[in-house]
Amino acid sequence: MTLGKIYTIVNQKGGVGKTTTAINLGAYLGNFGQKVLIIDIDPQSNATSCLGINKHDIDSGTYNVLIGAQPILPQILHNPRFKLSLLPSSPALAGAEIELIDVQNREYSLKNILEPIKYRYDYILIDCPPSLGLLTVNGLVAAIDGVLIPVQCEFLALEGLGQLTRTINLVKTSLYKELEIRGVILTMFDGRTNLASDVVEEVRRYFGDQVFNTIIPRSIRLAEAPSYGQPISIYAPESTGGQAYKALAKELLAADNIHKTIIQEVT
Q: What number of CA atoms fall less than 13 Å from residue 144's CA on the CB side?
């Protein structure tokens, strides 16, 4: 039986590389032989769209699963070429926050849904909306192995970190005492600017050894890949962005003590 790990990727600030990290980290984990499921709980459905799926064609997905109208397994889409599985989202998910208001223990809805299927996967990555509402709280409570926080290497990205860590601590205190920050991922790094290096230094000072060594650079190829509906591992694996996410996947596997052979990618 697979000992599945569940990580939630969260940052209430948009445009920091959260969805980019979810799909590209997931794809490279798949390339290294891991069975990966991405859960899209963002009503903007960016992870769904970035993997080439028209969000307006999704009749069920995360929305129906969260409100209890459908079981999860039949809603999961599989892409052998990308080496990924996806529970897709649609704009209808925006209504779930309202519909869950009167549900008992509504903060545990996603955690309870994933409980019976988590051992089917090596990694489940939950892509949250850029907000701190009920959907994100569901993602945090479901993060049994911790939270991954992408942080853009720009000054304004630092401003919301205090609020985010307070929210994580609040969820830890009141809903899920085992919740921890698994790691901070520095994204959109531009080595031509002193500011980017200053941000890296500041984030490392604040989070210490929770920051991954791998830094994701700004990359035209990373920006282009979603328009082709492909992860960077397919679209441009030799690009700087592709190589960075490959290194990040290796770093996470090593930190998680995954002893499968990861030197040779699965073909």
A: 14
Question: Does the reported pTM lie above 0.85?
Answer: yes
For 90-116, what is each residue's pLDDT tens digit? 999 988 888 988 888 999 999 999 999
What do you get for the CA distance between the two ends of the chain, in Å?
23
Distance CA 178, CA 171 (A): 10
Q: Phi then psi for 151, rounded to 5 degrees?
A: -125, 120
Domains of the chain: 5-255 (3.40.50.300)
The residue behind tokens 């892509």 is 127
